[in-house]
Amino acid sequence: xxxxxxxxxxxxxxxxxxxxxxxxxxxxxxxxxxxxxxxxxxxxxxxxxxxxxxxxxxxxxxxxxxxxxxxxxxxxxxxxxxxxxxxxxxxxxxxxxxxxxxxxxxxxxxxxxxxxxxxxxxxxxxxxxxxxxxxxxxxxxxxxxxxxxxxxxxxxxxxxxxxxxxxxxxxxxxxxxxxxxxxxxxxxxxxxxxxxxxxxxxxxxxxxxxxxxxxxxxxxxxxxxxxxxxxxxxxxxxxxxxxxxxxxxxxxxxxxxxxxxxxxxxxxxxxxxxxxxxxxxxxxxxxxxxxxxxxxxxxxxxxxxxxxxxxxxxxxxxxxxxxxxxxxxxxxxxxxxxxxxxxxxxxxxxxxxxxxxxxxxxxxxxxxxxxxxxxxxxxxxxxxx
Length: 385
Fold this sequence. Notes:
Blueprint: E1 4-5, H1 16-22, H2 38-58, E2 65-68, H3 71-83, E3 90-94, H4 99-109, E4 117-121, H5 131-140, E5 143-147, H6 161-169, E6 174-178, H7 190-193, E7 197-201, E8 212-216, H8 242-257, H9 259-279, E9 283-284, E10 295-299, H10 305-314, E11 317-318, H11 334-338, H12 343-346, E12 349-353, H13 360-384
Parallel strand pairs: 1-11, 3-4, 3-5, 5-6, 6-7
Antiparallel strand pairs: 2-8, 7-8, 9-10, 10-12
Helix pairs in contact: 1-8, 2-8, 3-4, 5-6, 9-13
């Protein structure tokens, strides 16, 4: 029997309807979308349809969608592509951004001849960007580029991107948001967020891995990361991954159709989960802030997160000790550090991220297993003293 999957912020199972839509493009309709014959024309039409499906999900025109190999590439395309189109200046990023925003920003700051000055936008203890401090910082150092994620992958906390963008735009900055964790969980509207660019990814919304998109304002100037045959309007050369792009389009369409229903369901599951965890003495990180409805990031004091994750896995529950991208280089979460969480408590962090298929019975079973494991660990700790 497979473990109960409670790690949907890391990735999701490909939806049956998504897979069904993808399959013909591996064998029957296998053409290169740049070819002029019937096979190529069929592939191009499939990409065009998917581009519209992705565009419709966030309220933009299809021409604004640039397909990439993943969210990391899309974020790099904005950070590096926009920076290379502008004179070096000030780049502001949220203190809790994903590494694929943090790392390229750091790389820009280390360039020898045209380095950018990188500034971190602080968050409060609930994980929200301090809007007053952000505005003050941008007044002191006029921004050229700003990137703030819509919803954090660890805590699920939602940022007021539109307010940050308004402040940034008043200084003439180009603004980007990584909206990967928001898509399919909360309404995501490009115009309402007031940004110049937005990153989306398929595998967080029951689509395939290896495909994502950068949504861009038509007036935004970017230099490509990958040069070649001029695919994606010259912004991302390389033969298109037609099956994955098709799957992304269908996943976006399904996510939009089910948005309200899914949000209600996972929110009810999380409320039940958190009520019981708090009664066990858990701390909920970001619990006082607006969050995407499926995410619970908690700590049970004195119970190390990594240990609890391993024990829960053996008990049949797949959860995370933090972001999946950080598991290769384990250590204290930079998100919790930015939130000024005590390092000892931060070591106890565990993330549960729920999905459409999860049930109340699974949540109750998880709580029973957690209670049993915590009791065992505390007894062992007591005997060791």
